[in-house]
Amino acid sequence: MRILVINPNTTAAMTATIEASAVASASPGTKVTAVTPAMGPVSIESHYDEALAVPGLLAEIARAEAEGSADGYVIACFGDPGLDAARELARGPVVGIAEAAMRTAAYLGRGFSVVTTLNRTRGRAEDLAAHYGLARFCRRVRACDIGVLALEEPGARETVLAECRRAVVEDGSDAVVLGCAGMAELCKEISAEIGVPVVDGVAAATRTVETLVALGLRTGDRGEFARPPAKPYTGLLRDFQVGSPIIS
Amino acid sequence: MRILVINPNTTAAMTATIEASAVASASPGTKVTAVTPAMGPVSIESHYDEALAVPGLLAEIARAEAEGSADGYVIACFGDPGLDAARELARGPVVGIAEAAMRTAAYLGRGFSVVTTLNRTRGRAEDLAAHYGLARFCRRVRACDIGVLALEEPGARETVLAECRRAVVEDGSDAVVLGCAGMAELCKEISAEIGVPVVDGVAAATRTVETLVALGLRTGDRGEFARPPAKPYTGLLRDFQVGSPIIS
Amino acid sequence: MRILVINPNTTAAMTATIEASAVASASPGTKVTAVTPAMGPVSIESHYDEALAVPGLLAEIARAEAEGSADGYVIACFGDPGLDAARELARGPVVGIAEAAMRTAAYLGRGFSVVTTLNRTRGRAEDLAAHYGLARFCRRVRACDIGVLALEEPGARETVLAECRRAVVEDGSDAVVLGCAGMAELCKEISAEIGVPVVDGVAAATRTVETLVALGLRTGDRGEFARPPAKPYTGLLRDFQVGSPIIS
Amino acid sequence: MRILVINPNTTAAMTATIEASAVASASPGTKVTAVTPAMGPVSIESHYDEALAVPGLLAEIARAEAEGSADGYVIACFGDPGLDAARELARGPVVGIAEAAMRTAAYLGRGFSVVTTLNRTRGRAEDLAAHYGLARFCRRVRACDIGVLALEEPGARETVLAECRRAVVEDGSDAVVLGCAGMAELCKEISAEIGVPVVDGVAAATRTVETLVALGLRTGDRGEFARPPAKPYTGLLRDFQVGSPIIS
Amino acid sequence: MRILVINPNTTAAMTATIEASAVASASPGTKVTAVTPAMGPVSIESHYDEALAVPGLLAEIARAEAEGSADGYVIACFGDPGLDAARELARGPVVGIAEAAMRTAAYLGRGFSVVTTLNRTRGRAEDLAAHYGLARFCRRVRACDIGVLALEEPGARETVLAECRRAVVEDGSDAVVLGCAGMAELCKEISAEIGVPVVDGVAAATRTVETLVALGLRTGDRGEFARPPAKPYTGLLRDFQVGSPIIS
Amino acid sequence: MRILVINPNTTAAMTATIEASAVASASPGTKVTAVTPAMGPVSIESHYDEALAVPGLLAEIARAEAEGSADGYVIACFGDPGLDAARELARGPVVGIAEAAMRTAAYLGRGFSVVTTLNRTRGRAEDLAAHYGLARFCRRVRACDIGVLALEEPGARETVLAECRRAVVEDGSDAVVLGCAGMAELCKEISAEIGVPVVDGVAAATRTVETLVALGLRTGDRGEFARPPAKPYTGLLRDFQVGSPIIS
What we know:
The structure is a homohexamer. Chain A is of the alpha/beta class. The first copy, chain A, has helices spanning 12-25, 47-67, 83-89, 97-105, 122-131, 156-171, 187-194, 201-214, and strands at 2-6, 31-35, 40-41, 72-75, 94-96, 112-116, 138-143, 175-178, 198-200, 233-234. Chain A has a four-stranded parallel sheet with strand order 2-1-4-5, sandwiched between helices. In chain A, helix 1 (12-25) packs across helix 8 (201-214) and helix 4 (97-105) packs across helix 8. The radius of gyration of chain A is 17 Å and the shape is globular. Chain A starts with a strand and ends in a 14-residue tail after the last strand. At the A-B interface, strand 3, helix 2, helix 3, helix 5 and strand 10 of A face strand 3, helix 2, helix 3, helix 5 and strand 10 of B. Strand 3 of chain C pairs antiparallel with strand 10 of chain D. Chains A, B, C, D, E, F: It comes from Pseudonocardia cypriaca. Chains A, B, C, D, E, F: One of its GO terms (molecular function) is hydantoin racemase activity. Chains A, B, C, D, E, F: Belongs to the HyuE racemase family. Chains A, B, C, D, E, F: Its EC number is 5.1.99.5.
């Protein structure tokens, strides 16, 4: 089984972190690769960034479909950008890390908290929790006010840890969800320190795709998620036309 | 007051229809212009099309912001593509035609039905109704199974009318919402025939933007909807970097 | 276009404040008049007051309908008293200031707070937010514990302002809704001081009625909101019989 | 214990039917009286009728409070008119027949249907089900299209029965709620014929008030439901001023 | 009328407290008996305890059904254990104290708080509030961190009282629900001290069963709640087979 | 990794079917065993059966915990009986087949239908969908009116298949969830015939437990799901006392 993990931003170092987490979580026999899109923002910290990350990630899915090189896909940004469009495009299943992390956390108790990066991204996480039916489980979305690319800087780990601790004490949460693909490597360490399960979406999504592929399950394609109809695309995005070389 | 109506698809004939409806609905003294993006799909009939329509529409907003040529914006596709991103980018208010149509219909009785084009787009309309808090008001989303660009063809008007009639009889709806910008010109005629109010989102959104601008109201920009942070963008989308010539 | 704004309480000074806000918000060419009912409470600060305000406001709508002197109506009390009954009675659209203010605020970001007068009226505002589908948008209803008729007294403005400030800081709201028609004149000033959009329901409702009338939209009257059946009324309220001189 | 049942319409024959049902359902030792208001509509079949029924019913509560002649109150119209206002006015508990009927039916299985009179009143019943938190339990509100005062006419009983039967077969409901005080006397008979429990709101509300009084429970009056502040009332409704002879 | 109140734990002293409250709340002419099951945990303070309390309580219902010795049943543990199963087994109505207490409190104002024993039981109470449609009414579930069997110890009453006081001040609740059958005897005293109505579930459920029996209402048994099909049971639980001596 | 799958009924043939599905779905290297409890009903077709199945399944978990023979658990009955209690008892994760099947189906499109056995079990499935936050995804729960132990009889397969087909055509569902552990072996075949993904809960839950164990995730045990306090148990259930030989 081959799983393609797409980091929707264009920062290769972050793709490497993500790939490490995805590979570490996969079963033996599953080949996991992470990829950086050829276009888009270096980090996703606004609705604007998220919208502009979508073409690049769709191109990666289209390429893999054309090559027949992947059985399933992970979208490795906590806003789950382009998820519905990706499901139309891919033959195999596509899972976002926010949906996988939050659905996984729902198995671990009555309520979880999300700990994310910038304050301004909290709204999107709350939206997704509601959209996935998890509003009752998601007790609070907390922000550390650390930029996505600053997670590696000194002090960042301590700030994230402190916020996770507050999730346990103040929210009474049974589990914590890390709200950014860039936090994947902190997962085990934080869990050990705060004494509750901590969910990394990259790992959760990778295993979820594995499960879907293993069980022969993919997006139902007889209605809303059928392959998009081919039609002219123009301008800068002309190559995104379904049937063009890049979206074959 | 100057309102820019963006048709997120690239079909100029449809932009003209939309502009006519927007202009007809605006108050005297309001200058309304509709624009066709320089890139993207000729029609929006899938999540994929919708995702790829966003860069083009954001570019139009950015251009108008750079020129200072608009006080508010309408996004004239019933999927409200790119709405949150547009709100981050624009100084003035931005309103989608689905949200305006559905919120307007909620003033007209206990329940409304949406009549849209292709079956596969119903899911998005249901999503939006829930997202805007209108699930209780939206009794049913009905599709005519007519493509967006086929609305002008012979027989299409009759099919839309028949579906609107069913909305009144079968759903018991007090009002009908037309679920596609391309249906704007049918609004008055259908209302006359079925005897209940029929809401065209282009008109509703244009008047809503007018109201917001007139009252000095714009998106709150102290949190989630603050201007996106400037950062590198790469590849085909490099010019979408905030601060670049096209997103000044 | 002629819009009748009904202040459901009997305090003429408050009617004047309301009229000023309504007139200021209307488009050129729209004639806005505010009216004080001939019966009822001097202010509305309980469910009891609200219930007893309804006959007087319905009489004003009936009078205007008989005269043919209005194309649409605003109910200018934040409890939206008698809204459903008024919709049955009026040929043109009827909009309450709570529904208009809250629906308008929903265009301005992810969440708003309501700042109202007495603590005991918070429940009604919360009820309305839920009823209009805006529970998710309405982060908190805050009270200043100032009586409706004391809003003009020294210190009141400062108290309202302080509560609005708390809405921004503590609730993280993108916008503030003023929860009393008597606060209309504070709107611009408070917005300037707290740096987020502030919505006055009188202005929002006046513009919304304008929009509905301009677009030819009125309450659907084929079901629940058809004209009430004529039938005998007795006692003190005998003149409220549909078909009587006052409810012609 | 003395319970006052208020028929909010002015039809004495219906008050007699209601009283019979209330008396039959009360415990030995409880004195139940039904009363017809001195003002208002002969039947309640619209939001307009409902609004105009409220002053008369509040006057009856105020009179009983002044006399000290009742320990608790039932509002015997399925729209629960004036319930919140009545709770502010009364020292003892006040229960509406819609809330009592629907909450009682919720003890009898997973779902119930409401069978009511005119089609146009269905919206109010749906509203109340949602307001009381019973949307999940209330599977459907069905109308017989019989006017409130026509329930005694030949054929009416058969029509109501047929609709109740459909509730069992089509909705799969475990219980049926009769959606009009005027249907009280049909309750036992219909239950026998359709084989599922049938709830009459007059009986349910009378017993609920009995329970609340017996347990020493009344509306909490430290916040929203404190006695309304005294203030001037004018015009036709001047005597409704709290502290006046009729609202002492 | 004969009501059987089942204390689902095996502590006879607590059964006595429960019986006292149930007897005190019943109408003259109603014979109320409380019973202690022959098997199960001495107190219910976990999901595990609750699950293991169910066989014993079902056996008591089955015995009473076989004897024909009860017209209705109360399940006197705030987790409402085994309620759906009991409804299948009993001919008469069955009411849990959590559902009765919470539905009763909903008649007393806009919101109530629950005050319960151990922190770990809060989740179950929140679940039940949601399940019964009362999430909007239930403002907060508070725990005293007192074990069920420690409620009689010195200081316990003060701790419960303090938590009830906080419910009024911090939650703004109109009423308080006592979240444990063992708190029944504190009800009147706490209400007197905190000045808002306090609901004891044992009393509320006893009166509710009385009401249902008096009105001839029992669980609808034509679908989900029909008598369970007879079938083999094995092992330790073999006597629980429907049709066996203990489940005749 | 060792996963214990508990068939909560006592029919060994059904345990074998379940084990086959669980084993087939597990990754290489995972040892899956299914077990039949030593007590309880031969099939679970009522709330009563479900309640009485819980002690036997908890005993199996306790035994495996005492032996240290399992890293995680599947509860293989679509009512997810005893799930919360099992989570308190087990050190490793515990997953029910209804929650796993429904959460898995939510990755496959906008909506799914559940196809279950007897009509009377539909209510429980609807309850669980709501409880897990999946009410919006679960379009309809359909029953075949086939007893759990009759699924192997001639004609049963055709009846299940026909109902699944209706789920696609009438409900417009993107996926179908099989609502009984006994249907596991039909999964692939039905999917092939109806052309949409079909989810078997046994397979989904087995893979979900695998994922949780692989990622080091187990139920958060610092609050509600901490190990149950030890205390006396009496009568037939005395050995269920925490700390006894069977619940060590």
